[in-house]
Amino acid sequence: MRQKDWLIVGLLLVAWIIFLGQPTNVSAKLRHFLVRLTTPFVKLGDLFPTVKSRRQLDAANDALRAENARLRQLLHAVEETEAENLRLQTLLAFKKRAGFTTVAARVVGRDSSNWWKSIQLDRGLGDGIHENMAVLDATGLIGKTVAVSHGECRVLLLLDRNCKVSALLQESREHGVVAGSVSAFQRVPRCEMSFVSRNVNVNTGEVVVSSGLGGIFPKGIRVGTVTSAQMDEDTGLYQNLAIAPAVDFSQLEEALIIVRQE
Amino acid sequence: MTLASSTLLTILILLCAAGQAALPPLTWLGGVRIELLPGVVAFGALTATTPTRAVFIATLAGLAQDALSAGPFGLSVIGYAVPAVVVAGLRKSLDRDLPWVQSGAGAWIAGVAGLVAAVSTGFSFEAFVKICLLALMSAVIAPLVVFATELLGYRLEAVEE
């Protein structure tokens, strides 16, 4: 070894001894700097063990796809349950604040004919259901029970012309009778309110509620809103109002049957 | 018509009635729902060897439909039985293998059934349009019912001379 080399080694040793004598934060900074510098290379080294054969990758891909499909189905089920939960919570809140005893029921079928408007619920005689009981949900009046057997009942919807409800205009307090529209063929379901006095000024958008007369439907249940008004052409004595029902009948899944009015 | 074929037809009628009650309304078609039973009754009337059998099939279909409806119980029996008897009566003069004959029978039965229902609910121009739509629907469904049942080995029986 030449003299020059000895000098370099000696200087390095002295530098190292000086470095060791420094406070710990200096060595810590150096350590952190070195760690930052070397980490990318360490991560690069991690790549090598993951290189697998095409067959292994395909198998893993298939397994992941299957798992993904299963999880998607699970997610849909959870979303469905969540939506149902929300609906039932709304219904329950309504049930608590309403002043009557109700039985909750699920919609299990519609009318098999195109000429009548009804739905089938999964509650029957065993649940205390009888004919002519009012059926509603959190948004408004649905109709009344017309045929009851064990484990199921049929509800005549407000949209049917045979379901007549004594109703009241909320602002003008004018009475009338709401029934399904005579028109048998319509894109948007609607009802008609007839026998409304010709002298009353009816505003579009006015809320219609049940009047409580007749004994089937309790007073104050929302029926719908007025969309238009025109004079009865036959007699000229009354106004006929077109009513947009409060309930979306195409989306009905649950309902409350009023078994006892307080 | 054998016992097995009668049983199959009965099951088909019950399934179609339940299907009609489960199918959602077609909003783009004015809220009209698909009716499967007129097509089945047309098939029954074309295959029945006697008008009595056609009446039996129509009665079963009518009762099955009315059981799942808010309409007067038994009204649909009239709407199905009367045109079914006519089809069964004309059986010998009809070439029942022709699809348009089957379509005609379906449309005829759906039309009369709709007319009977409209008399009960109130006849109007909209009701007339609805009857036409239902007749058109059954004109398509009836040959499909014949085709499907032929696939299952249920052949249109030969006319008895």
Q: How would you describe this structure to a colleague?
A:
Chain A is of the alpha+beta class and 262 residues long. Chain A contains 3 helices and 12 strands, in the order H-H-H-E-E-E-E-E-E-E-E-E-E-E-E. A 6-stranded antiparallel barrel of chain A has the order 1-2-5-4-3-12. A 6-stranded antiparallel barrel of chain A has the order 6-7-8-11-10-9. In chain A, a hairpin with a 5-residue loop joins strand 6 (165-169) and strand 7 (175-180). The longest helix of chain A is centred in the N-terminal third of the chain and has 44 residues, at 54-97. The radius of gyration of chain A is 38 Å and the shape is elongated. Chain A starts with a helix and ends with a strand. The relative contact order of chain A is 0.13. By secondary structure, chain B is an all-alpha fold. Chain B has one domain (3-15, 37-151). Chain B is built from 6 helices and no strands. Chain B has helices at residues 3-22, 37-47, 51-67, 75-89, 99-121, 125-151. The radius of gyration of chain B is 15 Å and the shape is globular. The mean pLDDT of chain B is 84. Chain A binds chain B through residues 109-118, 120, 146-147, 154, 156, 160-162, 182-187, 189, 250, and chain B through 17-18, 20-25, 27-28, 30-33, 35, 37, 64-71, 76, 114, 117-118, 120-122, 124, 126-127, 129-130, 134.
Characteristic key phrases:
heterodimer, A: 262 residues, alpha+beta, six-stranded antiparallel β-barrel, 3 helices, B: 161 residues, mainly alpha, globular
* Number of helical regions of chain B: 6
- The span between the termini of chain A is 111 Å
Helix amount of chain A: 25-40%
* Share of helix of chain B, binned: over 70%
Radius of gyration of chain B: 15 Å
Largest sheet of chain B: none
Widest beta sheet: strand line-up of chain A? 1-2-5-4-3-12
Instruction: Round the mean pLDDT of chain A to the nearest integer and report it.
Output: 83
Could you name the ranges of chain A where pLDDT drops below 50 across 5 or more consecutive residues? none
Question: H/E order of the elements of chain B?
Answer: HHHHHH
Number of domains of chain B: 1
Query: Can you count the beta strands of chain A?
Result: 12
Largest sheet of chain A, described in full? 6 strands, antiparallel, barrel
| Beta-strand percentage range of chain B | under 5%
The N- and C-terminal alpha carbons of chain B lie at a distance of: 16 Å
Q: Which shape of chain B, going by the Cα principal axes? A: globular
Strand content of chain A: 25-35%
